[in-house]
Amino acid sequence: MDGNTASPRNIDKQALLAKYRAERDKRLRADGNAQYLELKGSHLAHYLDDPYTPFVEREPKTDHVTFAFVGGGFAGLVTGARLTEVGVTDVRIVEKGGDFGGTWYWNRYPGAQCDTASMVYMPLLEETGHMPSEKYAHAPEILAQCQRIGRQFGLYDNALFHTEVTDLAWDDAARRWVISTNRGDRFTASFIGLGTGPLHVPKLPGIPGIEDFKGHSFHTSRWDYDYTGGDPLGAPMDRLADKRVAIIGTGATSVQAVPHLAKTAARLYVFQRTPSSIDVRANAPIDPQWFADIATPGWQQRWLENFTDNQAMGNATEDLVQDGWTDLSRRIRAKIAGLPADQRNPMGMLAAFEDSDFEKMEEIRARVDTVVEDRETGDRLKAWYRQLCKRPCFHDAYLQAFNNPNVTLVDTDGKGVERITEKGLVAGGVEYEVDCIIYASGFEVGTEYKRRAGFDVSGRDGLKLSEAWAEGLRTKHGIHVHGFPNLFFVQPTQGANLISNVPHNLTEGGRTIAAVVKHALDAGAREVEVTQEAQDAWVELLLQGPGRMMMGAADCTPGYYNNEGQDPGPAARLNVGYPAGPSAYFRYIDAWRNSGDFEGLEFR
Ligand code: NDP
After folding, report:
1. Whose CA is nearest to atom 43 of ligand 1?
2. Cys bridge to 382: 215, 341, 365, 554, which one at CB 3.0-4.6 A?
3. In the chain, where the domains are located
4. What is the pLDDT, as a whole number, of residue 2?
5. Whether the CB of 24 sits within 6 Å of ligand 1
């Protein structure tokens, strides 16, 4: 780690907490999620157009498949792969993008890269025989891995790209799902999986005048390389050489894109509302000899389990992965281990967690001073909140970019861009004229599932999912929902809830679903459904856990992690994982699957 290290003894905690509160208060706003614009169906819908793959006309589908899956990202791919392995070969993935990849299909902005070590982040490495080229792989390699999975498991044959599901309904009489899409398809499936992902609907800030701008503009998840020049592989964006570019937002996306824009744009204005915390990246190529030595059978599963064991509640004795996330957890665990016996209680542990956070954030702020030459710019790039209040970022060229004479940080002191005009943007009463505005303004998170998915789901007796979940998510394992036979969710919540490595939740989910479907098919069952009692019991179990580890979320600066600083309501208490933690969940679900009883499910 570079930067100074601080010990809790020389940190004035009260002063820091007061500063954190003041910075949060500046940013709290009454409109919360409503400050952002919904693009779909609006006059701004063109921001959603796919710049990467031409649209191909095709005939609507009216046939039947064994398994349909909504979403062609990691969730759909790993579930499709696991189903293929158990002999279900007619899996149809329906995907709104023009290819597989999900988030990695859309996010091709320059510098896009995974933040969790590739060895555990990239799914099915062992099955596909792929060696990641870097500790943190760049987006084109991750997209290529998605395509490799698609090809190897035959998932392209049945896939429907550039297709959005508009309705999903259980047909009680035929005992199958009816899937309708925006391409006129109306086909049926015995089983259905949903893996629409948490961050797939781009949003724009509701800045007054946003429609007035006469220059060029796009969202980072629809990068316009025709305009900028260059390509996702890193070719320089030569067409920006005479352009004044503004980027709005300084979250994880902007942090990765800014260094590349800084290299090529004539002028770059980075409009900041809240700084991100930027820790060391230390990326490096993977040595093929080293990889050949460690990649013995079962290696990826061992690495996945080791990564998970290294999370806060795990029990690892070694750290194979050694990335930013395991560093974070190691520090917290070391602090807790160092507590005197009489302080090893929940209060003592929370205090140790807080101390560890103060130290880490002091280190991150000190790093800014060692990197950024202009003192005032450096001060404005410092994050004043607990590290997990916002998505932690890791980069070795972002802060450095502000030393380039063509780059200007426009810090809005928590207020955001005031107005957009025909010629540019206004912040702090100053108009900045630009040729292009890039919106690194993120994705919808706090809006309701139906809006983000683009459809509601009608289960048995016409029960709507939006009604079943009106007071919050209710599932068993985060996968099965009572009233919705033969339907499976692939996502982390109410399962392992391992947020630092989402793909691990998904590969395990895929495995579970494949085991359940195989059992149903082998037994000749037409329906499988979780019982009401089993679902209620699971939810009760979840509620006995420590709850959302994001303690003090209300004290955090607003963002999508804490519902933009607004009370998320009682339903949020259900957005939790297995009380004993992710490692324990993965062990539990493995035993549940392998027992062959599928306790809590009814096959009929
Ligand atoms: P975020 O939602 O994290 O960031 C949006 C940015 O836009 C914030 O800085 C926000 O400021 C800013 N903003 C919003 N409105 C305004 C306004 N009116 N004026 C000025 N600024 C404004 O989106 P990202 O796309 O950066 O990241 C989304 C998520 O995607 C990440 O949190 C991460 O989970 C994932 N991701 C992962 C990556 C990886 O694994 N490598 C890389 C990139 C993204 P404020 O903070 O004040 O709200």
Report:
1. 253
2. 365
3. 13-40+210-281+355-439, 64-201+445-603
4. 39
5. no
Spell out the alpha helix ranges (H) of 322-421.
324-337, 346-371, 375-380, 398-401
Question: What burial class does residue 38 get, using C-beta atoms within 10 Å of its C-beta: 0-12 exposed, 13-18 middle, 19+ buried?
Answer: middle
In this structure, which residue's CA is closest to atom 15 in ligand 1?
A: 205
Confidence category of residue 1, pLDDT binned at 50, 70, 90:
very low
pLDDT tens digits, 401-426: 999 999 999 999 999 999 999 999 99
Q: What's the pLDDT at 548?
A: 56
- Out of 113, 441, 562, mutate this one to test ligand 1's pocket (max ligand atoms within 8 Å of CB): namely 441
d(CA 496, CA 591): 14
Ligand 1 lined by 564 (C-beta under 6 Å) = no
- Distance, in Å, from the CA atom of 251 to the CA atom of 390, rounded to the nearest integer, reads 9
The CATH class for the domain spanning 64-201+445-603 reads alpha beta
Q: Which atom of ligand 1 is nearest to the CA of 206?
A: 18
Task: Note the pLDDT tens digit of each residue in 106-157.
Answer: 999 999 999 999 999 999 999 999 999 999 999 999 999 999 999 999 999 9
Most distant CA atoms of the chain, gap in Å: 70
DSSP state for residue 473 in the 8-state scheme: -
pLDDT band (50, 70, 90) for residue 4: very low
